[in-house]
Amino acid sequence: MPCAVLLGVLLMAPAINIGFVADDFLHWAMLTGRSPNAQPGSHWGLFTFFDGVVAHNQALKDSGRLIWWGADQLKLSFWRPLSEVSHWLDYQLWPDSVLMMHVHNLLWYGALIYALSRLYRLLDANLQQAHLATWLFAGNLMHVFAVAWLAARNQLIAGVLLAAALAAFHHWRTGRGARYAWAAGALLAVGLLSAEAAIAIVGYMVAYLLTMEAGKPVWGRVRAILPFVLIVLVWKAVHSHLGYGSVASPAYIDPASNLPRFAQSMVLRLPALMAAQWFGASTGVFEQLPRQMQVLYAAVSISLLAGLGLVVHYLKGFASPLARFYLLGSIFVLVPACATLTMDRLVLNANIGMSGFLAIVICQVVARRQTLVGWPAAAAKWLVYVMAAIHVLLFPLASGVSSALLKTMLWPTTQGEPLSVPDARQIKAQHVILVNPPTAEMVFYYPVVRDYLGVANPQSMHALGPGIQAMSLSQLDERTLKLSVPGGIKATMARDEVSKPFKVGDVTMMGGIRVEVLEITPERVPKVVLFRFPAPVSDPQWQFYAWKDTGYAPFVLPGVGKSVDLPAVDLAKMVAARLKSSN
């Protein structure tokens, strides 16, 4: 369906001017030889952020790239060799053109839409439904960042391979020959080498066997899926043997090693992801909410989804095996996505099934519209019309607007924030202390962003505490500061307080600064912390900065025996100010 491919590409095209974002800067440093990071089975190590080696993590703490409250054993390392090759090609073909790198992403998205259009037509004899499904996927608002962010290309590659694998699986299961089973297995294996997200292939295969082959013997269906499960198990074994995985991070939870923690996260994250998928409720703020608010968010999402499900059931939207396959598959593939922080781009593969299911429901309701009169039929019909308006009209419109505004929205955070710290050649200080960075864990990217943009870095840039929490800073003597954070110092990526809780008396080092935890919260995260400097805090080697409105400003420490209160950074106000300052 060329029109849908063109639509999807055009809607995302305005975002190709956003430049590098976060991990993209790291990839630039690694692929240009500035920061070699070779890992087992990976020449470049593009997706190894922390390798779990205590000494390596300590070196990152000493430079300030890893926050002091990060876990010593922190590991965030992913094996994606195929995706790495795609980025390597960028630097071979157009090393100085970030624009062409983004065009490369757009081509993958176009290929994904095209592959899905063929898959929908293969599975559904009703071309109206198949074409609508392609349109729904192509214009989905949740895809903008997955296409715009260079580092997320692995999801697009995995999506293309997913569509091809499902087509081959369908051919095999409908009697076209065993060669298609081999092809599906090969595509699954290659997909797993592009991204962990390719495990979604097995989720859709299981859904297919449960719905499209519901009347067949159970053992025959079990035997059909076993070879593909074996491929995943072999991949996982090699993945682990090479040292990849996630340890001590709440952002990426390995279900194989921490199933209870994963199950707990799934209960909250799955409804949030599904709400984003169906209603366009962005998951951007979910992880920043207190646990009680996350529970409420999940409960409201479940209620809304259950209500929508009852309406679809009343309209007999689940009657078709194909509809059930699409819906069940879209849910299955979101389960492994719950292992990581909720992000809108994670619903990309799930939207393959959701788009197919919603297209069937919309087309069936439109075909029966003359018979759906009176209560409650008319109300159910109009609810489907509302969902159709959201996905057919509003989502594509919002995608285009979001793509056009993405650079404006991202630049203040991705570049403006690190650049607001002065060039090291303009200040005498060797060490910069950031009292309250808005997102302390993002300091990890500051040095490489500044390096890319030609701004000199000091020897270190350390975060004292998280700016999103109100805090009080006191000077006890000429070398000692005390930080009090009533809400506790929590990490969203660098430390899982459940598996790696703090205790009173814990000590860590960030460079020459000794950090001691004096008091913890009931959640066992630091509440009161001492910073013991190796030289007086008034020494010129230290320069303190605090966040103010849209950037960092020099910060004057309170005198000995005195303290200063720092309110929590107002994220809404900060974003509004950033947008205003960038115009």
As a percent range, the share of strand residues is 5-15%
What is the rounded distance between the termini? 38 Å
Helix content: 40-55%
Which oligomerization state do the chains in this entry correspond to?
Answer: single chain
Number of strands: 13
Question: What is the number of helical segments per DSSP (H or I, 4+ residues)?
Answer: 19
Helix vs. strand class = alpha+beta
Nearest-angstrom radius of gyration? 25 Å
* Biggest sheet descriptor: 6 strands, antiparallel
Net shape: globular
Biggest sheet strand line-up = 8-9-10-7-6-13
Instruction: Report the average pLDDT across residues.
Output: 94
Low-confidence stretches: none
What labels describe this entry?
alpha+beta, single chain, 13 strands, six-stranded antiparallel sheet, 51% helix, four-stranded mixed sheet, globular, 583 residues
Provide a brief overview of the structure.
This protein has 583 residues and is of the alpha+beta class. It has 19 helices and 13 strands.
Structure notes:
- The protein is 51% helix and 11% strand.
- The chain has helices spanning 2-12, 23-31, 54-63, 81-93, 98-123, 127-138, 144-148, 153-173, 179-192, 200-211, 218-241, 259-279, 291-314, 321-332, 334-337, 350-367, 377-419, 446-452, 571-582; strands spanning 48-51, 75-77, 245-247, 431-434, 460-463, 471-477, 480-484, 507-510, 513-520, 526-532, 542-548, 551-554, 563-566.
- It is α+β, with helices and mostly antiparallel strands.
- It has 19 helices and 13 strands.
- Strands 8-9-10-7-6-13 form a six-stranded antiparallel beta sheet.
